[in-house]
Amino acid sequence: MKKSYDIIVVGGGHAGVEAALASARLGKSTALITIEKSAIARMSCNPSIGGLAKGHLVCELDVLGGEMGKAIDATGIQFKLLNRSKGRAVWSPRAQADKIKYERYMQDVLENQANLDIIESDARALEIQENEFRGVYLYNNTLIKAKACILTNGTFLKGKIHIGNVQIPAGRYGELPSIGISDQLKELGFSVGRLKTGTPSRISKRSIDFTNLQIQEGDKDPRAFSHSTRNFDPPNIPCWLAYTCEHTHEILRSALDRSPLYTGKIDGVGPRYCPSIEDKIVRFSDKTQHQLFLEPEWDGSSQWYVNGFSSSLPIDIQIKALRSVPGLENAEFIKIGYAIEYDYFPSYQIRRSLETKRISGLYFAGQINGTSGYEEAATQGFVAAVNAARKLDGANDFILERHEAYIGVLIDDLCSKETSEPYRMFTSLAEYRLLLRWDNAHLRLLDATKKIGIQKSDMIDLFERVKRETYILNTKFSKTRVTTDNPFNIPLGSTSSISLLIRQQKITENNVMALQKHYFPDYLLDSVDQAYVQTRYEGYIDRQFKQVKKMNQLEAKGIPHNFNYSKITSLSNEGREKFLKFKPDTIGQASRIRGISPADIQVLLIFLSK
Ligand SMILES: Cc1cc2nc3c(=O)[nH]c(=O)nc-3n(C[C@H](O)[C@H](O)[C@H](O)COP(=O)(O)OP(=O)(O)OC[C@H]3O[C@@H](n4cnc5c(N)ncnc54)[C@H](O)[C@@H]3O)c2cc1C
């Protein structure tokens, strides 16, 4: 351990791992300070990566040079492309993880990363002078100096577990909370909030009666998250589907007066989209059953995760209620479900670089910003580290816009919307969904990844080849004629161009492989697929590009950080208050702040032009 580094990352969760790797890979001497080395990259809750919109985040991170996609490809036990029956915009990859192998994979990568030291310790306080970050104090008061710091404390800041009436200070089950940092930041003027999340029980596999449960298998043709993954042949270990019944709901209902959620013991706001089971039976009281997914936590695991049954009810009720579920009558409990409350910092306090507005050189990433989820955390960790490293080099901020990436949507939302509950990424949050597909992350982020400089050159060459070929294929599709004896078995009166047949949906998704094989064998399947999507959705894609162009005119109008909104008397009171709170970087961002009227934007434009 040295006494001084370029960048310190506090916390070895999903945000911290990506932050530490990105920083070290950009050549910065980096220290990762984390409470427990063996808990690095731990999946606190569900053993899975990806899912709707979250899968997009992982693919984008992979293209930019992050590790999460490679890690899950190497350690996943079941892969599925979700929403395949719907349009391309909302297809999303998800994988069931072997959470033990996943942690070990990440720990190995970190151990072997040049420029990176892992310090097993509790970071207790920050050294701040004249609103600038200078260093981190460890639990024994040792000061480690650095030029920048990325805080990724997750659910640990003054974390408190709830199980019925019992409250335990903890950052996660069996792990100590982080005390000190959030109070210090509050003293420095930061606004602090309280959020809550929860996790279900883990039960023993041998106690599950699978006879009447529905099997849930992965895809037979699994797709990897990372472009660098080769020889991809993961296991396809099934999960199982069970259902709660009226009796389960009666048991839960009878104990609501013992639930910390309803007795007022929990102050923090939980995620509306991921409620606990007791919350579900209250909010959806007309439902007679709720789905539960039974998932192994690792390959060969005897410990199974009961997805959908998160609870903070007392132990006796959790046991009784789960045992009323058909198939789980004899459930043996390994770990009981619980809720956790923790401090977070409302994200209007950060810029799009993820640097805090108040303290120079101090960045926040992950759950500390009020988000929820491994993927949301990982992408923020990466972006924060890239920006911290760029600041040290005197380079401009690395910002992704909303039309470029889900990462851009996530960070822009954090900086321009007030989050009163844990923020989770959804496809519905992106206005340019058709442009932001999971399958084209390498094309839309090619320039961005070259700018960052972490991605390996063979990958950049591959992405450039796909881009080039896709461009050529778009022309070839309209020039190549398909004859009546075509390999797709399409009945044709006369010859027709490939483009036309794609637009008429005669050549479909299922024909893409045959299209490549018979007409364009010298081109990559990926390139043919990209050209297929671009042809199939051409009209919609063009329309979205036009909308982006319009929006870009507003995004291009920057607002200086020190702009004095207080002086503009013609702003509405709400407008002035919101601008002072969010301090938007651009007019585009200003226009997305809730409560800002078109009149406020007009006034702002006039003053900026002056
Ligand atoms: C019980 C529970 C249930 C959850 N349920 C869900 C869910 O259903 N869906 C969902 O999307 N997300 C859920 N989450 C949240 C999910 O785990 C987080 O979103 C994700 O892990 C956030 O990543 P992170 O890197 O920000 O923080 P974390 O993964 O929490 O990692 C924080 C890291 O920082 C370290 N650390 C903290 N303070 C210090 C310090 N002072 N010094 C040194 N190291 C420190 C910790 O040891 C840990 O390694 C749940 C979390 C918990 C605990």
Question: What keywords describe this structure?
Answer:
18% strand, single chain, alpha+beta, 7-stranded mixed beta sheet, 6-stranded antiparallel beta sheet, 22 strands, Arc Repressor Mutant, subunit A, Elongation Factor Tu (Ef-tu), domain 3, 4 domains, binds flavin-adenine dinucleotide, FAD/NAD(P)-binding domain, 610 residues, 35% helix, 20 helices
Q: How many angstroms does the end-to-end distance come to?
A: 53 Å
Supply the CATH class of the largest domain: Alpha Beta
CATH architecture of the largest domain: 3-Layer(bba) Sandwich
> Helical stretch count?
20
> Helices and strands: which structural class?
alpha+beta
Q: What average pLDDT do the residues reach?
A: 94
Radius of gyration: 25 Å
Percentage of residues in helical conformation: 25-40%
Q: How many strand segments?
A: 22
By CATH, the topology of the largest domain is FAD/NAD(P)-binding domain
Classified in CATH, the superfamily of the largest domain is: FAD/NAD(P)-binding domain
The stretches of 5 or more residues where confidence is low (pLDDT under 50) are: none
Shape: globular
Strand count, sense and closure of the main sheet? Answer: 7 strands, mixed
- In total, the number of domains comes to 4
Proportion of strand residues: 15-25%
Instruction: Write out the distinct hetero groups bound to the structure.
Output: flavin-adenine dinucleotide
